[in-house]
């Protein structure tokens, strides 16, 4: 906790340097009886005109093996590098759509609380996802971070089916300037909390990258928390202007 507060006060270059040494650090915050894993120190993601942050809410219920899903073996015939669209200017995101799992959700801007920790979407709005305002805006150069709950005491939440998204699936983020940033999913990976690769997930990027984070693995009833996290990685592959709608 002291380390999280210390990093929150550092300048952007110093935070990025410190983050490299904290790739497995995790904080667990208990909210309303459910624990949310937080993978990286606050203000740790650089991108465009935004600096970065972190936050990791709850994910789909599964078995312990879900949280340690093996990384696919390298193919003997590597696929071509994905087409990357030039980055957009900064604009606040307002809605997330993931057609492959029938998801449409408003986006709530999230900042830092009085204790220097990232805010999380309220449990009273289970179908709302959050955008971390200290990360790049979706479509802007850098790493943009979205977070959301998988369930609450009353049932499934916004990212209940996040682990079912396949590589190549589209992700659409509507923005305040009228444009829609179009992303293509590169991969979805599950990690045990003790091995969460924060430096990889929150790494700065020259192009426009998107991360969607929730929790995964089994639910530990004794500790009232999930045992892992699920991370969706995607890159900007296109843009739809308001005039094209």
CATH class: Mainly Beta
Rg from Cα = 17 Å
The CATH topology is Sortase, Chain: A
The helix/strand order is HHEEEEEEEEEEHEE
Q: What topology, given as strand order, has the largest sheet? A: 3-4-5-6-11-12-10-9
Which stretches of 5+ consecutive residues score pLDDT under 50?
1-36, 38-75
Distance between the termini: 46 Å
The number of helices is 3
Domain count, please report it: 1
Overall average residue pLDDT? 74
Percent of residues in helices comes to: under 10%
Region (Disordered): 64-86
InterPro entries: Sortase (IPR005754), Sortase_dom-sf (IPR023365), Sortase_F (IPR042001)
Protein name: Class F sortase
Keywords: Hydrolase
Helices, strands, pairings?
Blueprint: H1 2-8, H2 12-19, E1 27-31, E2 34-38, E3 93-98, E4 103-110, E5 129-132, E6 142-147, E7 151-152, E8 155-156, E9 170-175, E10 180-192, H3 198-201, E11 208-220, E12 225-240
Parallel strand pairs: 4-5, 6-11
Antiparallel strand pairs: 1-2, 3-4, 3-9, 5-6, 7-8, 9-10, 10-12, 11-12
